[in-house]
Amino acid sequence: MAVPVPGKFQFAIDRGGTFTDVFARCPGGKVRVLKLLSEDPASYSDAPTEGIRRILEEECGVPFPKERPLDTSRIEWIRMGTTVATNALLERKGEPLALLITKGFRDLLHIGNQSRPRIFDLAVSVPEVLYEAVVEVDERLVLGREGCRLLGSAQPVTGLTGESLVVQRPVDLEALRGPLEGLLAQGIRSVAVVLLHSYMWPEHERQVGELALQLGFQQVSLSSEVMPMVRAVPRGYTACADAYLTPCIRRYLDGFRAGFASQLQGVPVMFMRSDGGLTPMQAFSGSRAILSGPAGGVVGYAVTTYGRAEGQPVIGFDMGGTSTDVSRYAGAYEHVFEATTAGVSIQAPQLDINTVAAGGGSRLFFRSGLFVVGPESAGAHPGPACYRKGGPLTVTDANLCLGRLLPDYFPCIFGPSEDQPLSRAAAHQAFQELTARINAFQGPGSTLCLEEVAMGFIRVANEAMCRPIRALTQARGHDVSRHVLACFGGAGGQHACAIARTLGMSKVFIHKHSGILSAYGLALADVVQEVQQPCSLPYGPPSFARLDECVAALERQCVRALEAQGFPRSQISTEAFLHLRYERTDCALMCSAKGHPATPDTCRSGDFGAAFAARYLQEFGFTIPSRTILVDDVRVRGTASSGLGQEEPLSASRGLPRLETVSRCYFEDGYLETSVYLLEDLSWGHSVPGPSIIIDRNSTILVEPGCTASVTRLGDICIAVGSGTERPTGPQVDPIQLSIFSHRFMSIAEQMGRILQRTAISTNIKERLDFSCALFGPDGGLVSNAPHIPVHLGAMQETVQFQIQNLGSDLHEGDVILSNHPCAGGSHLPDLTVITPVSWCSGQGSPGPSSSWLAGGTTQILGASRLAPCPPDSHSLQEEGATFVSFKLVRGGVFQEEMVTEALMAPGNLPGSSSTRNLHDNLADLHAQVAANQKGIQLVNELIGQYGLEVVQAYMAHIQVRTGVLNCSLKTWRGAGGEPGRPLLLEAEDFLDDGSPIRLKVTVDPQEGSAIFDFTRSGHEVYGNCNAPRAITLSALIYCLRSMVGQDIPLNQGCLAPVRVVIPKGSLLDPSPGAAVVGGNVLTSQRVVDVIFRAFEACAASQGCMNNVTFGNEQVGYYETVAGGSGAGPHWHGRSGVHTHMTNTRITDPEVLEKRYPVLLKCFELARGTGGAGRFRGGDGVRRELQFREEMVLSVLSERRALRPYGLQGGEPGSPGLNLLVRRDGRIVNLGGKASVKVFPGVRTAPHPLRPTPSCPPGGCTAAVQWLFPPPSSACGTPPPAASLSFRTPSASRPLGEGALGCPQSPPQPPPPASSQPLLERGSLYDYRLAQETA
Fold this sequence. Notes:
By secondary structure, the protein is an alpha+beta fold. Helices cover 27% and strands 24% of the residues. The chain contains 26 helices and 59 strands. β41 and β42 (894-895) form a beta hairpin. α8 (292-306) packs across α13 (517-524).
């Protein structure tokens, strides 16, 4: 197979969603390129087959009739990448399937990690599960644990990792037979099997799978075979995706084979997998096909650009119509092993391709004085305004109006009849109208012309696309300026020079086949075989022999599989990887020993320990030599080289390049004469200075002024990027520059966050991403922060402004302040804020006053009452941990380690309290916060160096005063029965379980566009810990306003400018300095949100609680918050089993929980029917049952155990929550909402019904605690006729909910139409953002 067959054709085909690209190597070496529509049923049934037919017919000179199967005698091989799986997943058009899962976990994949993807969407939109039915499998595996007594005839077994397990309940196959036959009767032929801990011991899954196949199921996907890795939830999603998509792929492949004689027998047909390797057609499966199309492009630029760039690392930049793919290559493919696509988490090796919502079709908006690009897209229909179908303004229209796209070189395929050219007039007219609106908004002095507006949008779009590239490089410790920008895709060539210049990159590389690089990459790719096995060994000499045996066995599997495909052993290479992490962390890295050769003291495959340390240092900036390294998985990747050989070089040029024409393009300096060349007319050695345009059949390349393009020996374009010229910027507000500064300020906060995440040690920061970083103006007003953790929105600004007032002249250069006290703006004690002033020195003297402020806030456990970080029974602040008001963490540049250590240990001196339990990690995290602020100082000073101090400070102020969206919403809002233009009075109240009221009166002045939020009649400070510092109420208010506005407004100091907040001193919303507040942060904050939404009738009540659960002893400690339901709204149902409002914390996966802590999770499911009934239902709560295996202290801190979540407009309230403890003797104890108790291990033998009355669960050893439906939500009814306009309408018509809205008998009302279709975002940057928003 690997030896070329003379006289035969080689085909590489990328079947995309819109176009199919064909690259063909003909006999004799001739190359043919073809692009055709992926769907054209009037002309052909299958685009790849038609592409092959056309080329064979044209090159062979004989007819190949469409109606007859193609003769394959002239075909050497076919390689394909396809979006069939991705499209089926996006459109939810896969195979109907059922989920078979361990009993007690039927809703595990519905709940997932319990977070919501967009924290400000009241209508919680979580992609629906892929399965149509669930069958619970009565079986259970339990991990062995020393000291835990298991009675009965439980069978001990040894897992693949070498760990001991106990078969607590064997699988009952006879009981399963009936439900499976019922699925077949429903027409379901595909199943996914997900049993807890099957990755370690797959026997139960194999038994279930064999039974399913015997009964006649056509697709059986076992999670232990699809991806044998720990964590049941992502492994379950992956198994479901495999069962959902593989039948679709199989049907497509059957149809593809049918177009060829003999069903393609004897012709090697390979498909690209998500990991960048080819696999035989018969082995191509759904879970490995998600990135089949884009992966070819990464291989294409990696092979063609990296080598030709002399080893420089490369950034791949693939800009299309609706989105842009960004990736990185530095000599090895960068893989991720879990990524989210279309809302489904896939646990499989995938190239790290980051898709962002920015493309040629991205829509252009002017909002609140800001130029906004995307994320909405015009799509293919109607497309941009210039497509002549009434579409909106887009980036493509801006390029057309600026002369960067030339309609004469585009085919006439536009307009209703698809026979007209691009319309410059349509784009010009739309821009004229937008320019008029912008000038009217800016006032009489604004005289922006059409070209300036279009150019402004291009600059903003470029800045938006620079942010993910910075995140892939600078935020991970790489110097972005050392990279080459490899540009491909239809739209990238128009932006490449500007983006490279902005990022400081000096070279852009554009391959001659850039328009079809994904197809060309398929021709260059290798065939890959991967195998993986779970492991649970410490990395060290005692384990090396077992690791070597495992690697050798996996290598043999890879080699045998590749040899079976016809590759000789000489063409096969293998590479071993270990999935390594430090003990007590979740951050595992898949490490190769490449570059770290074996020694007598290492594994035979190499020094993985040194490789891990080097990689960890690169990723995170430090190592932890004292920590044990653990091996989670062993992986071997076998590769068989089979790609194309060396391309034929071009002949050298013999003169100047032929000039096609001269056009006029608009740049920063205005219109310039711009030379136009055709790529086909250029030869090796030709040099094209900018400004110029190079036109290919599939793309347009803009060479900007100061840049020079040259043609390489192989016919590619290499652009040397010059510095260019920048327009001077003054302190007066300019809407274009304001938009760019908005991106730059946000980028500073984002990069600070990545530094903090990289350099911190604690799981809370590094894995859970529970932190915020922020930039403040000279007055302490918030300018930008990232991520937007709701509880931090108001607290950080209050803290910074307190320090400015409190310290005054006692703040000097080199000082860094640490604060967490509620009287200083803190939310609660675990949220520590580190504040650093930025002093600008121009080099001509000493630094002046602070030009701005930087702060990084994070959560740490700093000692608390007993063993609980959220003590349920604290009555004073000192019982909740260490306090800092204006503590100088760094004084004159010296870190005050001794003093801060003393403060962290101080709580241990109080009776019943403890000091910090992990001082080393606390100090390391504080160092990380200081380092993050130092990174911010560097970036702010770079910005000042570029624009000047006056300009930067002026734009900090301009950003803060842009409150137009909120102001306009208040002007247009009117409640039920309200008269336009007249002040409106809104009132609402709610009560904590102890009877304490939270009362709100809102006075809205529509004429001024302002509002007063008055909490005066709220209850007094309470003796317990449900007091909420003032900062909590402000954060809750900002969250509510942002959610009700439904637009992406800057969440800075200006957000509350139209609002006055009145909070009485001494109330539970502004308590005395010594009051206990931990419950105020995690409980009362939720109730404040419910009261605000109740006043505006925005939605019914959600669970109003975070359901805080803590257990631990002197050896271990664990804290979690448990989901409930979300409230229904005017046009949506509540979502069940999800976190709401002020929290979005992910919950620990069941397998990880049981592996690391002495507990069993007996059940985690929805408590059906607990949400309020109504026209729109409230979301249901959950039932979660834990069984303890050691003596520990259990603490619960919760609300809504006495009072039910309210309904709106006739909707019914949700059910209250319930915390039950089942004693060893069978007694059931109601713990109430707040309790701390000792629990003991014990023997339980009697089975119990899951509902309605809990009793002692079977097996194991422990007391058990059950949470029966942490509060569900209430319902929402029929809205009054005059209620609400834009202010309380959520951002989209997505489903949501906890409480119910409206009378149950009310007829349904359709939701308002969505403005655009959601875009597919994916990659490590997208997953990082999701993780940030689930802190």
